User: Fold these one by one.
Assistant:
Number 1:
Amino acid sequence: MPRTVAFLFDNGGRDLVGRARTASASAVLRRIADHPQVDEVVVATPDPKPWEGHGAAIEPDPPGPWQFGERLTALLRTYRPDRLLYFSAGSGFLLSEALLDRLVTAEPDSPPYAVLNNFYSTDFGLLVPPFPLGDLARDNPIGARLWQAGYVCYELPRSAETQFDIDTPGELQVLALHPSLPPELVQMLAEVPTSRAQRLLDVLVDPDQEVVLLGRVGGHLARAVEREAACRARILSEERGMESSGRAERGAVRSLVGALTHGRTATELVALLAQFGDAVVWDTRVLMAHLGFWPPPAERFASDLLDPQRVVNPMLKELTAACAEASVPFLLGGHALVSGGMYLALELAWANKDRGERFRPLPLPEVR
């Protein structure tokens, strides 16, 4: 029988996002460790202590600079699986039992093949046979690199369960409204504010209101909003792939929202954006890259939580305060907010509501 091994990569961290990632990864471990076709689970982490007693093999990250591809290659040499399940911490924990089983047992083609949550920005997937990917700095380009290596790449259906990934406090505010959270996350997310996320859900089901989406909004998500939201949507999608393409690192990011800052203060920009909708969901990392500043995670996350007192950068501090005081709810974050976070918002918005009463036409039945 082919040997299936699961690798969980957890970068640790004591802040809210780091702790939420670890908790979500432990929920994934609990479920896949019980799957009859998973032979071993391996956790690669710089902080082994939270993983003790979970029944997984723990591989502490070596000291020095960390690079995804090198770490993956070293683990593959040690464990030599025939089939590799890979999960980054923060992803995959919303998978249904049926979809998780479908991923673990998938044999859609003759090897080499891969089944990924997202071909263009991978967070988890199945690789048969495993491929070392030694030169990748991060996991997001896995799909493109496997395709270049001759793999047939398949993608799971796009939904909250496959696309949600914990990356910022922005999407955590949506996740905290989930009625069936894994037990590992329930207590932790109790400290996360949810009032703005709840107002977003209310807007999504109201045909008289409008949501504004700004940043790296993908085409799949835009179509989901068109299909699932009752409200109108104003979407400005820009700088998709700014990190994987190297544009952010080169200082080459150009943003239309960023252009609106020229001649305006951050407060004036927020006031302008608030005029265009009843809720604003904003991937602010595009604006930061356009303006040429990239604060440390603590400041970015404080901004996402609309806490200007913990933000040092003057521009971001003013913008954060303006969003907190705006006339409409602003939900701030990064790419994960305007991808998996919005998929989840669309699903939660309709929970316990009659979709048959939605404001949209029905397709005309085929004539028989």
Number 2:
Amino acid sequence: MPDTLKLLLHNLQLLVLKIVMKLVSAGQPLLFSGPGSSLRMCRAMADLGARKVLIVTDAVLVKLGLIGPLREALEAHGVACTVYDGVEPDPTHRQIEAGVALARRDGCDAVLAVGGGSPMDAAKIIAACVANTAAVSDLVGNFKVKLAPLPIYAIPTTAGTGSEVTVVAVVTDTAAQAKTPVVDGKLVPLMAALDAALMTGLPPHISAATGMDALTHAVESYLSRFANDSTMRLSLAAAKLVFANLARVCEHGEDLEARQAMAMASTYAGLAFSRASVGYVHAIAHNLGGIYHTPHGLANAIVLPHILDFSRDAAAARLADLALAIGAGTRSESAAVLAERFIAKVRELALRIGIPEKLDTLRAADVPLIARRALDEAQGFYPVPRFMNQSECEAVLRKLLP
């Protein structure tokens, strides 16, 4: 199909999607914030009627002792717990189905996600599958969750994905080597606890990658054609917090104030992109993750400056806004100058926190496939400021080759 027809179809699909999104309601969780907030939320879960909770997490967090205090707090308030720690990075259909089976076996009436993006994504899909008596594959796509999931609660232990407030969960199709989304307003958790005390032990490389994930959400949602006054305020606030605090948490992991600020940045950016969507950075990163299992935040961080370069002329005014928000210029300067400076600041931050410029696992032979898959994902769903064709996407990817 010629690029002109692809662009026309893309714009028509976006028009329909924008109308649908206005008709689909997505709530916002009750947020508990600050050190110790996770324990306060446990009591609130009991007050809301939870009696048997499936805690969805990973084996590392269990080993580190983060789950024990939460389980004890729930049990002290009369809530029985089953722990499912079989979630690994980029959760698969099989891992999620195992959690579903455990929830059904024990008659769980609520799901608590504890961890980074993978446990939170898995927990959301588990809750939806149990309530809908559905397989994971039945729910992949947009707005396929017919019945309300089991009540979902979230305690993020990283600051980046924003999954504690979003309408999306991602599952990996191992056969297709692809990440596939489950998108529905019903997936938004009822409550979330942003507890910086649970994040102080994160190693710098994870803090860096997840923090750049939050920045990518903030930037792509701000540049989105679906952005509105509300989402733009959230995006700008998130970007400002990331630039002020990400290097601090990477260099001083025990800094509770900076950790709490990054948790808020993640949540603000999650709220923004749930309503305004994302763009080509995510489309490419999802496919790098599907093929090479590149951590999502790391893939976003490596790709982000290149997509900003590609979008610079079309998005100069909004990139200038971002530059002003982070204190990288004055209103007397032109939008073009400010846009260029913001992109430079993104590169400067990434370099400072140890993000590589190249992707070691990327193979030249895979570039056309990754580009095609990324563009297929973005087509008609991502309201990007500038349309990208196959050769342009391949050119971006080749800049990432080791």
Number 3:
Amino acid sequence: MVTQQYTRDEIMDHLSAIVDPEIPVLTIQEIGMLRDVLITEKGYEIILTPTYTGCPAMGIIEEDIERLLAEKGVGPVSVKLVYAPAWTTDWMTDEAKEKMRRYGISPPEHSSCNQIFSLSSSVKCPRCGSDNTDLISRFGATACKALYKCNNCKEPFEYFKCH
């Protein structure tokens, strides 16, 4: 049973501090993983959609949510992972894409409706802006990124795949 009532907006505001551990400049709201907060007679249910099924960051994100809300006196809390509809890069804010670029990861440049799970034929280097780049590996440090190199500045970089 909920002892102190918080509004959905208050919980969403608290959750705006939770970052994606794989891209720590982005919050779970900015990347579009935080789908909803439900207030039930049993407590607060946080609805998340992982960027990928089996995303290794989900355990950390769930722990961060539970810890943060407990510190704020919010409870009981449960985190529910929802896989349908599947997460899409279309849910990312433009601000998130720009933060990603400044962090050194080339953001997705197309709508998932146009290029599902495919790699762009031209990926811009997040450092120098050149599109004179080559694919090194379809997978970077995580499954959601690919590894590229820039032929102008010679720097390697990751590209967040469109999906």
Number 4:
Amino acid sequence: MKRFSWWCCAWFLVCLAACADMERKPDPGPAKPTPTAVSPKAKPKIALALGGGAARGFAHIGVIKALETNGIVPDIVVGTSAGSVVGALYATGYDAFALQKLAFQLEESSFKDWALFDRGFLKGEALEKFVNQQVSNKPLEGLKRKFAAVATELASGTMAVFTVGNVGQAVRASSSVPGVFSPVVIRDKEYVDGGLVSPIPVRAARQLGADIVIAVDISARPSGKHNQGSVDILLDTIAIMGTTIGAYELRDADIVIRPEIGGLAAGNFQQRHDAILRGEQAGFAAIPRIREKLAARQ
């Protein structure tokens, strides 16, 4: 009798389980994909490409003032000739107002270290020393912003982009106008002014990883006036070369800023205040175009 009761209980439990399985389970509905996290767009890298133009390079300071006022801070700075001087100081941490203060204190005579019986009438050592003092003797790779100085390798005529090593030496090489400054020897190679191959260093800025390149063109077309001296002829020749080569290179820039530097002599340091003002005006005029480019990349 006990065995019969046990079998009855077992049979009842089996039936109960079967009935439970027969109950309709709720419909889980259509499959839903797991939402994936959307990574924010990377901030575009902005490069400031500062062209050559001797004393007209003070206009670069005005452009930087306009950019800083509007919160536009470059990640990369590349300079040729005069642009390398301003660019190196800016990359080391000088803001626009500090650059302007320094510009007003400069004595042109402090850069004139005369060379006798050499391939230029200025050595350029004074410029190298000045730059190294201003950057506290930091190397190129130790500056706050990524910076490059563009020069021309004399033997091959190719572009040289200095991103490591002695800042003053690189700037000196970038600024050594043939016939005016003696060529600079670095690691057994001679270098002269970068404006011969890259007057506005847009290509170098791209090589350093720039997404948006803001180029500042301070070159001037030849005046057309009859030149009396050899230096005048040399500067006119370089201006012609710079116009032709620069026009080709500027096609790869996103924004080109051209301060109205007509009438400003390349060798006249006394016009520095006017040059800075014209650079500032051109910089402010370019802000809407820069914002448009930035918005399109964000």
